Amino acid sequence: MASTLFIGNILTLDEKAPRAGAVLVDGERITAIGTEQELRAVLPGDTAIVELGDRVLMPGLIEPHGHPLESAVLLSENVVDIRPVIVRDPEVIFDRIRTAIASQPEGAMVNGWDPLLQLGLVDPTLASLDELAGDVPLLILHNSGHSAFFNTAAAHLAGISRETPDPPGASYARDAAGNLSGVARETAAIMTVAGPFLSRGYADFGRLLAAELQRANAAGVTTLCEMSWNPAQAPLVAAARESHELTARLRFYEMSHPGGTSATPRHNGDDIVAQVGIKTWADGSPWVGNIATSFPYLTNATTAAMGLEPDHRGAANFSQAQLTEISRGYAAQGWQLACHAHGDLAIDSVLNAWESVIAELGLTDHRFRLEHVGAITAEQCARAASLGVTVSVFVDHIHYWGDVLVDGLFGEPGKRWADAQSAVAAGVRTTFHNDGTVTPLEPFRNMAVAMTRRSNTGRRLDGAEGVSLNDALKAHTVNAAWQLQAEDQIGSIEVGKFADLIIVDRDPHAIDAELLANTQVLSTYFAGALVYQRG
């Protein structure tokens, strides 16, 4: 691979030398950083030169909590996309569903149902879906990824019935007589129903994954984390690598099981693909009412439409003893743990479990990760810091659901949702993410929202402070690399690291925070190779 010299405005994210005038790439790695004059003096003869002009070179961005394998299928032609970022009108949504039923007699899968943003939608029942689809299997995934609606034909296709037991940490909703009522709650149940639908994309998975990584490259992302990894998918990924060149690094967190351990060796994979941790879900999604909080949901028309009783409080997926047992089993194998926890009670439960396990096993550089942390408090951030626990905050909730969080769901607690600054102030290495298809992959918007705390209507959620620009940039670069245990390979522009780089149209330090969200990625380089060029 030929050498490339980048000359101009370079933002390194290396605290020792945050700016540079020139960077030399030789093959896959960065080999020199300095001034233009210094590096021109040592150029190999065949070096390509990129003059940045008014553009800026930065490290490739990192999505530390995504679902690229799942997104590859959900964003393909095999699934009907009704996410609220695509369509809001219920009539249009049902037109798309009916078209899919008519054109896919083997079964129609729909993704993105969200009545909180698609006003006028009413959650379907088993009877209504049976009437709508008849003998055609129909599955509708909630945009949160924490519930799904299915008809009788889809239940038959998945092999579930009233006799099917609920999976650990998940459930199938049932009527008073014990019959399935057409709702799957939480990952294990949803994956069971969705399995036959998702498998249709596996025949052409290499192409679908390559397309998903190209979408990531267009957003400036060169490393993605898969937070719902099933090791049974390893042959799929291996085949995809044989048929298509991967244009981003993939880091996997295997889905946990009570009493389980991982059959994957702790040290595995390579610089492109590797499993690095274990994922557990302590609670669910605020949008479907199943997060474990000390405060109630509001009692109003919004929560009534969600089917919530007055003063509803969600519940955890596991007891304290179960969560501690899960954590202990995998941590004893040396795995990094990551746990989805939105509600403050769920966060307490996770910290309780981890405090016990960390002390019992004498762990030091464990980097356990709290994920999403919508209702985290400043006190919990301080406790996390004292335990060596890190957080990844779903700040984009503020942009899309900020008004709903305050007016529709929680009132005052909603104003401090996704409090990234309290984590930063406590000394916690903090990152941001977009969580697969739940929100678009938009790291620059994440940074802007974490700084301004403004929703898409301009409303500021003023129960917490915004982060600084420097901390916002670190959240998708050096901090994310550290969370993924790859800080010596990626995340900043330093000699010896992989040349995962992006060129953007503006200097983050020269614009207002609101304009950061509109940053355009012009070029993306992966291991020194140009993999995306805008236009």
Describe the structure using short key phrases.
seven-stranded mixed β-sheet, globular, alpha/beta, eight-stranded parallel β-sheet, 535 residues
What would your notes on this structure say?
The chain has helices at 36-40, 68-74, 90-103, 126-133, 152-158, 187-198, 205-218, 234-243, 301-305, 320-331, 344-361, 378-386, 396-410, 412-415, 420-425, 443-452, 469-475, 478-483, 513-516, and strands at 3-11, 19-26, 29-34, 48-59, 61-66, 80-81, 108-113, 138-142, 147-150, 171-174, 180-185, 221-229, 249-255, 273-281, 336-341, 369-372, 390-393, 430-432, 501-504, 521-526, 529-533. It is α/β, with parallel strands linked by helices. An eight-stranded parallel sheet has the order 5-12-13-14-15-16-17-18. It has a seven-stranded mixed sheet with strand order 3-2-1-4-19-20-21. It has a six-stranded mixed sheet with strand order 6-7-8-9-11-10, sandwiched between helices. The longest helix has 18 residues, at 344-361. The chain starts with a strand and ends with a strand. The model has no long low-confidence stretch (mean pLDDT 97).
Structure described in brief:
This protein is of the alpha/beta class. The chain has helices at 36-40, 68-74, 90-103, 126-133, 152-158, 187-198, 205-218, 234-243, 301-305, 320-331, 344-361, 378-386, 396-410, 412-415, 420-425, 443-452, 469-475, 478-483, 513-516; strands at residues 3-11, 19-26, 29-34, 48-59, 61-66, 80-81, 108-113, 138-142, 147-150, 171-174, 180-185, 221-229, 249-255, 273-281, 336-341, 369-372, 390-393, 430-432, 501-504, 521-526, 529-533. The chain is globular, with a radius of gyration of 23 Å.
